[in-house]
Design brief:
The protein starts with a strand and ends with a strand. Strand 6 and strand 7 form a beta hairpin. The chain is built from one helix and eight strands, in the order E-E-E-E-E-H-E-E-E.
Length: about 140
């Protein structure tokens, strides 16, 4: 069961469906994505803020996949960082039981292994986000 963090808000993940690279419901352990804008003060002669302005949009995301899905993708593509950007479709119900559909275009930043004796076999991958489409 996945943990979803969308724009910083945590959602219940009872019925989460994630489609990655045309693989239906890959069942990630967690997925997180969002964006923010840089903000700056506009200052006057007295060095006090008298206004504000917005800067560029910064996007970030990560996905935690079980080791069997990671291995399947590595066997299919080799180095995950060389996979071209792909859509990640996320569907889940929010607190009001309304269905939320998001699409994230992203690619993997790299490849890694994280195996511990006390945890489950899974890998968290940082994503290079191309675009985030909310509520499609």
């Amino acid at each position: 069961m996945a943990r979803i963090r969308r724009l910083g808000e945590v959602y219940s993940a009872g019925d989460v469906t994630v489609t990655l690279d045309n693989n239906y419901n890959i069942d990630p352990s967690a997925i997180s994505y969002g964006y923010e804008y840089a903000h700056e003060y506009q200052r006057g002669l007295r060095r006090e803020p008298r206004g504000w302005r917005m800067g560029q949009k910064d996007q970030e995301g990560s996905i935690t996949l079980p080791l069997d899905m990671s291995t399947e993708l590595e066997n299919k593509y080799g180095d995950l960082a060389f996979i071209r950007p792909f859509p990640i479709n996320v569907a889940f119900a929010n607190a009001e039981n309304e269905m939320i559909y998001d699409r994230v275009w992203a690619k993997f930043k790299g490849n890694k292994r994280n195996v511990t004796g006390d945890g489950e076999l899974e890998n968290e991958y940082e994503l290079f986000i191309i675009s985030i489409d909310l509520n499609i």
